[in-house]
Protein 1
Amino acid sequence: MSAGFSQLDDRGRLRHLITLDGLGRDLLEELLQRAEQHTSTPGEVPARGDTLRGWTVAILFAEPSTRTRASFELASVRLGADVINLDMALSSRAKGESLLDTIWTLQAMQVDAFVIRDAEAGLHEQVARHVAPHVSVISGGEAHVSHPTQGLLDALTIRQCKGGFERLAVAIVGDIRRSRVARSAHRALATLGVPEIRIVAPPEMMPDAAEYAGARRFESLDRGISGADVVMMLRLQHERAQGAEPTDLAAYHRDYGLTAARLARANTQAIVMHPGPMNRGVEIAPDVADGPQSVIRRQVANGVAVRMAVLAHLAEARRKRAP
Amino acid sequence: MSAGFSQLDDRGRLRHLITLDGLGRDLLEELLQRAEQHTSTPGEVPARGDTLRGWTVAILFAEPSTRTRASFELASVRLGADVINLDMALSSRAKGESLLDTIWTLQAMQVDAFVIRDAEAGLHEQVARHVAPHVSVISGGEAHVSHPTQGLLDALTIRQCKGGFERLAVAIVGDIRRSRVARSAHRALATLGVPEIRIVAPPEMMPDAAEYAGARRFESLDRGISGADVVMMLRLQHERAQGAEPTDLAAYHRDYGLTAARLARANTQAIVMHPGPMNRGVEIAPDVADGPQSVIRRQVANGVAVRMAVLAHLAEARRKRAP
Amino acid sequence: MSAGFSQLDDRGRLRHLITLDGLGRDLLEELLQRAEQHTSTPGEVPARGDTLRGWTVAILFAEPSTRTRASFELASVRLGADVINLDMALSSRAKGESLLDTIWTLQAMQVDAFVIRDAEAGLHEQVARHVAPHVSVISGGEAHVSHPTQGLLDALTIRQCKGGFERLAVAIVGDIRRSRVARSAHRALATLGVPEIRIVAPPEMMPDAAEYAGARRFESLDRGISGADVVMMLRLQHERAQGAEPTDLAAYHRDYGLTAARLARANTQAIVMHPGPMNRGVEIAPDVADGPQSVIRRQVANGVAVRMAVLAHLAEARRKRAP
């Protein structure tokens, strides 16, 4: 966040959700608590509400994403909003300020919230600075920087499975350097009181020393997950995997892939997480992905609940701000 | 269907609809009866209901299709479901099991039914084998193998126009060998008691001898439609038509195109059907497509009704299975 | 419109909206009045209704358009309609009459209104001639010929800002020759009684002498906007701008770009309009686009209201025609 910009309103409620940086423990816990009310058992009618009745949510995703787009769309619709989907590369349109013209145009059509995914760092804040006071910007992913709803759903899943955050050792494994998932998970978990966060990566995927304050760094996966309560695997980035030789992928799997044998080094009650989509056989072995310690599908279910919670919070905060 | 897999539940109700093979006459007639209740006169408010209130239907079409996709979408929405559309080539994603990961991800977001069109034979069953007990898979077209809702809408249209199936001669004309439409129509009509089914095709488009048991085979269109009550023309497949020379298309029209003169050989009350989209001037002459014997648009209207009936049946069956 | 075709029904109400040509002042004023009821303040719940409950609106746009498509979609949804979006190049499909087959197919699925944007002049009328009596065709833009809802929203914006049309001088500036926006604005304003319409363009962008009867023509922007009450800037067409050298764009801006200095020649109360999307720094300077005289975002808001008004008018007229 730049100086002079806040995603909070005067009451300390969210006006936007662009990053988890700067959000306090109480606010995160309130969002998790609210998300719990939006979870429901698969096979039952999903949790619904009419908190967003009359709202229009515009989903603007420059990067393709089946899961995150669908998750936001369902979260919006199940709270009663109308949704419009727009496929557009916002950052490439940003020449001559046309990005903001697009936003202003949709705002004039009474869009209440913009869910934006874009590869340009800072774009979400730029939009948030220029929308009307009643309009919210929600990040669905920002470059390598931030993915706040992913961080929240990871935290919710850990809380559900572990009962809290106080005594946990959480290992995040993979391309930490380029991962917005890792950054938002680290931020959420540090704020919520996880005492031990470990990052595990080969040297070229390790973040700069200035980042991840307080985290322990490991180059060895075996040592990094030893005794961990939570093992969070990251996706080997598609753009890297494409250029990679099969031998490279095999080498990555050998050194940083989570197998059942490796997982045995973690706490016996450890849970395995992955933000999806998985490269099976690369960063995670199929039997681990589908095994009893995996909570990967629960993460997806929690994703809808967390997004409903964020949208409902934004709507309530707006109602309270209204004169 | 592979051994050990059934699309029916313990009560003999549909859990999925992947093929018409193995479905009994009573079940087909019940679906047609239910579909009748969902038909309505164009210009009046279309039949609606709330049988799917709270449901989420995911439409995953790997092959482009304006009409079938729209038909399923409208059928779902008019019964109160939320719909998410996903353009994705499922079969090409099937490496490393990521097809199932995509399905599981959407299922975790509480998708209740998947409508899938794909060019890979067997993919629908593969998905159906892996979804949760409350989730249904509906085929919107499977390779050259099966198109069950098309077979049902064809049967419904014939029953509406002819009052029944008992004394009919039905001629199916065109590229039978590669046609899922023909296979599903043949299955529906044979089950429903049509005594005479004829398949009419040039030798290279004729199916193997093991298929279409009981059907009479004709290479001559004139003889094949002589005295028929129903003439069902197939679309000359686009992928073939593209490579085809104009002279080939002209030759096909000369030998297998339905003209008014040829139609005169059929029963004077014969109806003309086509699954669409039509290649006018190739497999069917425009004046026949738009003539008084054509029921092609009625097929489209029945398509929505049949899909509503299938979805409503699936929802009812699920409710009865629930503890 | 061709001889023998009318977009009005026997009562003089709209059956279609393809052009503003031939529509009387009373009808236009009624549409504007109705649109006023559908405007609402950004930040409040947008105007809604259930006039279109049970309707299905199909949006078929061959040309990409974020804003007009979203505007029609939101107008439809906020009046209670179901919407299906179809991306298809209608005119290129028009071979062998497949355009009409597509329309008839959707009509058989009980689509009540088609919103069509296409680059082929005459296509909208061709469709309107062939739909069922209860079905409406609404133009979302037709080649260089017509953009009737844009003309209505421009008129509504002028009336709101100026209190009427009687004493106004309106200057339309830019590529008049290729602009459907200019044609529809001219038609609306001439019918509604604007006494002085000026068109301002370089010679190669000036329309033929037979068009724009009664309008004053200017090659000089300075003289053309002198004393004007309304300055309506047109977008420099993208297909032209792409081929254009930066020097050409700079020259266009120098000669025909609206700057603050130039705007000072207009009436001090003059409003500045633009149909969007803007080429900032080409036809309009950023400080003018965002300045106090700009009503560009209000045009967008009025666009939704006007489209709601047109849809509601069509639905009412249909109900009155029904036996």
Note: The mean pLDDT of chain B is 93.
Protein 2
Amino acid sequence: MQLSDHRIAVLVDKSFEDLEFWVPVMRLREAGAEVIIAGREAETTFTGKHGLTAETVVAARDLEADDLDAVVVPGGWAPDKLRRDEGVTSLVREMDAQNKIVAQICHAGLVGISAGIVEGRPATGSQGIKDDLENAGAEWVDEAAFQDGNLVWGRVVKDIPAFCRTLVTALQS
Amino acid sequence: MQLSDHRIAVLVDKSFEDLEFWVPVMRLREAGAEVIIAGREAETTFTGKHGLTAETVVAARDLEADDLDAVVVPGGWAPDKLRRDEGVTSLVREMDAQNKIVAQICHAGLVGISAGIVEGRPATGSQGIKDDLENAGAEWVDEAAFQDGNLVWGRVVKDIPAFCRTLVTALQS
């Protein structure tokens, strides 16, 4: 399978966007990747905005960027919680420093802002964080999904297919 | 994109299994397919078992097998409703007669039973319909997902990645 040698952390927290989390998780597993569901703490179960659930297996602070190929951040309200955690922001910052894939969709850019990885780079997501991305020095792009170096961006729920396509392509190259 | 010339109907009804419906829909769109959400009636919105929603655009009786490459049936309690509708069962029966892909996961085999397409063939799904599949003449197979000619089968929610992988492979060949 295409990504059978890949280890990918997918972050989750309270009120995550159900499909922005679960569709990439299922898609990466389809491609053979090992998906590690991570958050502020291990073994915590969260309910998404619409009622699906997800459980972390590990705290982000206990993951090493050296051992991962990518980190994926879903939207919903989860990024508002995730961005407050130094374990999360250091992991995202270190992944970026190692030129590894950091994928963000919808409100996920809030994590990128707090990790300090968006300045001077194109970015997209929910209209609700456009001003925050621009104030952090990113250049707002109104596209369904795109890759910019090691960063993969997706806009909103209806753009999940384009986000997954871009993510899988980025991981294969 | 791999499936950009494909038109695929995905059926939905009350209390559908949220991820068994939405993950294949997003996956097929990722591959460029045109996804047509269909059910007993057009323009009806349903809520899944866990709270996600989905809206039909067309009634199954108004779809022609000639115009489709595949039909996908999710699980949850939706198959219990879908199987009662002659528009649904004739579409599934005609797709099978034309040797086109019919994909069923979890409780979806209930639709295959009522469409009369499972006799003498291997099948899988939720343990809850094992007896009904066997009584209809199918041979129960305990596998995550598999293809048998034009039929694609998936077992349960955790097998969605294997189901999608098998489905996309079947559609490409």
Note: The radius of gyration of chain A is 14 Å.
